[in-house]
Amino acid sequence: MLNQLALLFLVLGGCTALMILKDIFRHPHPGRIMNVIWPLTGLYMPFFGWLAWWYLGRKPSRQQKLALLVPQNVHRHAGWPTIFISTSLSAAACILGELITLSIITTLNHYHFLTPLWMQVIICLSISLISGLFLQFLAIKQRESFSLWRTLLVAFRTETFPLLVYQTGIFFFMSLALKFVLNQQIDPLMAMFWFMLQLAMLTGFIFSWPANHFLIKRGLNPAV
């Protein structure tokens, strides 16, 4: 029963991401980086990701306001749509980090190089942080005329804290899933593993929400 539920949610997540991607080709988002982030959002938010895209990403009246395009000194609003967009950027970075880490671990295991769990955590956290800084860098560059180093500094200040909190939520959930559901097995060939990772992404989203709210409310997050 649980395996069937896992497969259902994975299929729904994939279909949601494809629906958003198809719609983006017809209605590109003005924030270029959001054209990548929105389909990734659909992967861990089956159906609800589509509703979020339709309401926050596709409606022209909200695109400019929530496109990561508005300068910091013009708009500083900590409403839920703004926090959602900011948190989804951290989520996209974490998804990229998880996928790349799993590819590295699978390759190492294939050649019989066993990596301890703490090493996997460090690899995943490092790749996620690099991905998050890169996504923030692109968003800030499109919006502001900062120098290269200032853009990197602002991206680091903006993304580091919420991304670390997001990864804390992922690691917390996956540690419980590995113990009680997956029998300590990290197997990308199991649908249950991807379902647990999907739920872990949602857990991280909930964890990171207050962190992004805190930064935006105090003007420390200039990404939105």
The geometry reads as globular
User: How far apart are the first and last residues' alpha carbons, in Å?
Assistant: 42 Å
The Cα radius of gyration reads 18 Å
Mean pLDDT: 87
**What number of structural domains do the residues give?**
1
Pick out the low-confidence regions: 71-75
Order of helices and strands: HHHHHHHH
Describe it.
This protein is mostly helical. The chain has one domain. 75% of the residues lie in helices and 0% in strands. It has helices at residues 2-26, 34-44, 48-58, 60-63, 80-110, 117-143, 148-180, 191-217.
Gist?
The chain has 224 residues and is mainly alpha-helical. Helix content is 75%, strand content 0%.
Write the layout of secondary structure elements.
Blueprint: H1 2-26, H2 34-44, H3 48-58, H4 60-63, H5 80-110, H6 117-143, H7 148-180, H8 191-217
Helix pairs in contact: 1-2, 1-3, 1-8, 2-3, 2-5, 5-6, 5-7, 5-8, 6-7, 7-8
